[in-house]
Amino acid sequence: MGEFTPLDVTCVNTIRTLAMDAVQKANSGHPGAPMGLAPVAYTVWNRFLNYDPANPLWPNRDRFVLSNGHASMLLYSLIHLAGIKNVDEHGKVHDEPSLPLEQLKHFRQLNSKTPGHPEHEYTAGVETTTGPLGQGVGNAVGMAIAQKWMAGYYGRPGFEALFEHRVYAICGDGCMMEGVASEAASLAGHLKLNNLTLIYDDNTITIDGHTDGWNILRVNDGNDLDGMQKALAGAKACTDKPTLIVQKTLIGYGAPNKQNTHAAHGEPLGPDEIKLAKKAYGWPEDSSFLVPDGVYDHFKAGIGKRGGDAHAAWAKLFADYKAKFPEQAAQLEAIEKRELPAGWDKGVPVFPADAKGLATRESSGQVINALAKTIPWIVGGSADLNPSTKTFMKGEGTFTATTPAGRNIHFGVREHGMGAIMNGMALAGLRSYGSGFMIFSDYGRPPIRLAAIMNLPVFYVFTHDSIGVGEDGPTHQPIEQIMSLRAIPGLIVLRPGDANEVAEAYKVAVQSKHAPVVLAMTRQALPTLDRTKYAPASGLAKGGYALNDVPKPDVLLIGTGSEVSLCVDAAEKLAAEGIKARVVSLPSWELFDKQPQEYRDSVIPPAVTARVCVEMGGAFGWERFAGLTGAIIGMRSFGASAPLKDLLPHFGFTTAAVVAAAKKQVGK
Ligand SMILES: Cc1ncc(C[n+]2csc(CCOP(=O)(O)OP(=O)(O)O)c2C)c(N)n1
Ligand SMILES: [Mg+2]
To answer: What residue owns the CA closest to ligand 1's atom 19?
Structure first.
């Protein structure tokens, strides 16, 4: 790889000064971490990363994750200097650069490509959205799992090189302190992810815990390029474990009055200090956004040539693979486009009418198993709750260090880590899913939000979705969770009302290309509605639909999930008393919102203000459909520990209660 030369040091200092100048110009941002981390990031990019700047979407590229997203100018400087090409919103690569120098000058400004924290899909070269500390570590573990799985499932003798890439992530003290990093790191150690190199920017505190199963290397000088090169080569050579490189750096390196102090963390250095720092680097003191001669060429000769050659060799090998394994190659191409195989829905079960019915977690288990057969790249698992959430894909094996083609992942009791890992897997193209109890969606909420920000089609199966949990009591009974998930922009929340709605809900989930989906499932059995009598479950795709044919209703009964059948029963009782009640199943507010006004008005006519909304979750927010005068049958407290048969009357979820509320609405 050769010695480091003064030109290498000039490249490092270019990264530093671009970061300083951009933060200064924006009068906002974090200069210190980029100044400290520039040498190691430079070494990773220009000496190790197999990345073709001419095609940032090349599937076999090495991934680089900046988990300490506040150091965004480090990444933006590298994207600029490496000359990474732009990608438009349709995934087309263009000849123009992702970040011309102009964009660095507009750091943190409206509509610039250089937002405060790196945003995936927005800036070509940014592999994942980071900023909430620790998430990137989980994403990197997910990407490393995806690489292993792809190699395990699609690799064939002689074609191993098609799937050989590594994942590099840089994280800071803050990332290490966050639980999500520990959750993900412990799983990475357990899974022996030798394709993962995590570089810890040790600029303040020491590391503790969660390093079992890791190969740990240290570099004690933040400017020791040779030491970094040795450590990175050591990471590559380690075949049985992930590697953690503990990299000592000085925050704000080179700024004489601010380096090694928190003053360098999150504010501009100021013009005077910038001059002094530039002087220390041997830089023209009055220069701004200077890229000295030779720097661009040096990146071209480094990452550019290495990545371009590797990509070209890969393309040749892939053509051979395609000739030999056309079916697998077609699947890999579909993965890249987020498409589904032909006939993906052929095994989805149709459930016969059944008054006793089954829990939606049970029908969910049947549907996910049917889809697992036709969509091979559905890969996921539960947070240690397979017997409860029923999402285990039978016959598909378990993903372990020695069985990397297994499709069931045991995430362990790590809801937060699971979500961050799922995001990393989805960024690599897999249809990742995770399951757990609805109540613990709170434990893993940040990555759900980030999946929505990144438009990632992950899906969650959250079972035990109401006080229907019963005896486990208030700690395990979700109240505000469903409504708070509905508050996340872009997330599709689906609460199917019977087994056939479950099948339709999964169809929505796997067809989603750009939105994460939460599927809420019950623990308790629900009747399977007679669809010869009621409207077909395919109405679910519109978010809400009328179940019974009541042209001019006196009252609307609007329910979701387990409360749909309650509304159906109530409507029958009301009909016997001459009151025309329309039952609306409203499994997804988000999908319903997307329908034309005309359709929405046909389902929920604005003129019919006599309404009863029923959901066994927090009442908060149901005014939206109940209106100011409608009734809301929901939870206004925590639940209680008791058998479900006692909880239902206690909290008012009975046919009689719905009938009474409806009568009151129509003035009877
Ligand atoms: C989950 C989360 N909590 C808090 C923050 C706010 N925050 C941004 S940077 C930072 C300090 C992080 O320290 P370190 O990782 O050591 O970064 P350094 O100052 O060394 O660059 C904090 C608390 C955040 N971005 N994410
Ligand atoms: Mg730090």
So the answer is: 265
